[in-house]
């Protein structure tokens, strides 16, 4: 009896605490509740610490932001309102709202969900606040000028030839994996944009640590229950991250030391160089715009931004090419008609229009960064509503790009949508795979160039095969960048002997 009374008192006490919590919380955050009420309301109750993130558990995949957004869309529809812990999020799939937000100068800081990443990369270009970001982006943009592409495309072609040699030996016996493509993209980035003239000894280890690091951080992102500092020190994933960061930092230091030796007079080099390599530029900014920690954080961030995105993209794109033989045939015809069996030269790349359309159509269906997020430091007027200062926004590029209102038969893999003659049929702001506005992808032109050369070069040498039949079979997940929840089947069988790699001329 006593136990029962005590238990009841405890329940009453918890109830009172909850009521008190709601009264204080709602009063403090009234402007968000008011805004949300007029915009599809709150249909999910929010709880202390976790907000509404328990939805991820109900949706069945706790670490999968797309599954969560799909679930809420099904029961509530867009726009919807969520609480990531105590942070308010307005989620939209409206292309005009997306454009207004991404271009508004009051919406250029990253959403609070990035704080977990910022804990690890405190001061990288990805996460720093807008005021400091502007100057840094302006400097880094010098390394991504279109004129750099001429130089890099020769290296991308060489990289694709090495890759071809590696997969030739397998003769289509086994599928390649996400890791295989991520390592390939990583190596390309190191030997081009970064400016290393040879592979550093421990580059593979750097790549492995980076991939593991991304896997672990992705696990943390949707979990507001565990504070990031506690996760970092106490959970296996966090401790693993700390260990990997330590190794990545030590390899990065070594890379910088080697580079310093290589260019004792690098400042003079920068002044005369139209397209400075990233590593040279970072070193020249050390002590002024960047400190030691910023340089290391940016090196890790750039390496991740360049490898994970392009690697995941290539795995999915080649699988689609293997599934849709008619698309593959058109790719093959384009490269053979325009370039033949010669090396792919910088001037050939812009001519590969169908291959470029394949890249965009893959990214439309599978945007590797499926959800963009920003935090508003001013009220932002969207025309029919004003989002209050302090809100976070989530922009579901994934849902915009699969919306039948803008994309007829949205799950059909049809690269012709992106051919120049059809460009006028694409409604504005309905394709944002590289984001939009000031904080869009800095590496877009380089990524496109590398991906086009890789696809052209590989399809010219191999028949790509996949046992998958339809886009609907792909179950996607994303915490950092999108991939499938299951391995993909994608094999490469060398084309006829005379077209095999042996016949490719060296540059
Ligand atoms: C398939 C390839 C790629 C895709 C789809 C992609 C997509 C994106 C997207 C959507 C963003 C914006 C994120 C946001 O708004 O929060 C971004 C940012 C960025 N990307 Fe890419 N990316 C790709 C490849 C690359 C490559 C190869 C590089 C470098 C060589 C790169 C460098 C960057 C950088 C530096 C940023 C941050 C820009 C800033 O905040 O100023 N990306 N990328």
From TrEMBL:
Its main location: endoplasmic reticulum. Heme binds at residue 441. It is found in: Endoplasmic reticulum membrane; Microsome membrane. It is a peripheral membrane protein. Keywords: Endoplasmic reticulum, Heme, Iron, Membrane, Metal-binding, Microsome, Monooxygenase, Oxidoreductase, Transmembrane, Transmembrane helix. GO terms for molecular function: heme binding; iron ion binding; monooxygenase activity; oxidoreductase activity, acting on paired donors, with incorporation or reduction of molecular oxygen. Gene3D superfamilies: Cytochrome P450. It holds the Pfam family p450. The chain crosses the membrane at residues 12-30, 42-60. It comes from the Eukaryota. GO terms for cellular component: endoplasmic reticulum membrane. May be involved in the metabolism of insect hormones and in the breakdown of synthetic insecticides. This is Cytochrome P450. The lineage of its organism: Eukaryota, Metazoa, Ecdysozoa, Arthropoda, Hexapoda.
């Amino acid at each position: 009896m006593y136990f029962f009374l005590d238990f009841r008192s405890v329940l009453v006490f918890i109830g009172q605490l909850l009521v008190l919590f709601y009264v204080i919380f709602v009063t403090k955050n009234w402007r968000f509740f008011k805004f949300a009420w007029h915009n599809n309301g709150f249909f999910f109750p929010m709880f202390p610490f976790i907000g509404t993130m328990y939805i991820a558990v109900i949706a069945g995949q706790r670490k999968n932001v797309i599954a969560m957004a799909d679930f809420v869309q099904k029961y509530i529809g867009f726009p919807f309102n969520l609480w990531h812990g105590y942070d308010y999020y307005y989620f939209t799939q409206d292309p005009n709202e997306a454009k207004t937000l991404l271009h508004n100068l009051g919406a250029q800081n990253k959403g609070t969900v990035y704080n977990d990443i910022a804990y690890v990369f405190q001061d990288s270009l990805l996460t720093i606040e807008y005021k400091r970001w502007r100057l840094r982006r302006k400097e880094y943009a010098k390394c991504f000028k279109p004129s750099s592409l001429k130089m890099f495309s020769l290296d991308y072609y060489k990289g694709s030839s090495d890759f071809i040699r590696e997969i030739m030996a397998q003769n289509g016996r086994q599928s390649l994996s996400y890791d295989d493509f991520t390592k390939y993209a990583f190596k390309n980035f190191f030997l081009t944009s970064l400016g290393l003239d040879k592979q550093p000894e421990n580059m593979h280890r750097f790549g492995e640590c980076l991939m593991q690091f991304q896997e672990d951080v992705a696990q943390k992102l949707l979990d507001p229950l565990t504070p990031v500092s506690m996760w970092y020190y106490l959970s296996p994933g966090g401790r693993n991250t700390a260990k990997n960061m330590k190794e990545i930092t030590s390899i990065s230091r070594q890379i910088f030391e080697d580079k310093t030796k290589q260019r004792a007079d690098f400042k003079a080099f920068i002044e005369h160089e139209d397209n400075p390599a990233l590593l040279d530029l970072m070193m020249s900014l050390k002590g002024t715009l960047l400190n030691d920690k910023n340089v290391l954080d940016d090196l890790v961030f750039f390496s991740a931004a360049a490898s994970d995105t392009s690697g995941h993209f290539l795995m999915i794109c080649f699988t689609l090419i293997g599934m849709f033989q008619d698309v593959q045939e058109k790719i093959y015809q384009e490269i053979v008609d325009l370039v033949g069996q010669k090396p792919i030269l910088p001037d050939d790349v812009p001519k590969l229009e169908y291959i470029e359309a394949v890249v965009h159509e893959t990214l439309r269906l599978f945007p590797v960064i499926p959800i963009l997020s920003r935090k508003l430091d001013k009220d932002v007027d969207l025309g029919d509503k004003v989002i209050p200062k302090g809100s976070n926004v989530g922009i579901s590029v994934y849902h915009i790009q699969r919306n039948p209102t803008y994309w007829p038969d949205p799950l059909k893999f049809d690269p012709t949508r992106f051919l120049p003659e059809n460009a006028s049929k694409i409604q504005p702001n309905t394709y944002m795979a590289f984001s939009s506005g000031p904080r869009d992808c800095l590496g877009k032109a380089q990524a496109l160039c590398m991906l086009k050369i890789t696809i052209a070069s590989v399809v010219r040498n191999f028949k790509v095969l996949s046992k998958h039949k339809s886009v609907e079979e792909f179950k996607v997940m994303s915490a950092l960048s999108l991939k499938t929840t299951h391995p993909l089947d994608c094999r490469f069988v060398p084309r006829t002997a005379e077209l095999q790699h042996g016949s490719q001329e060296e540059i």
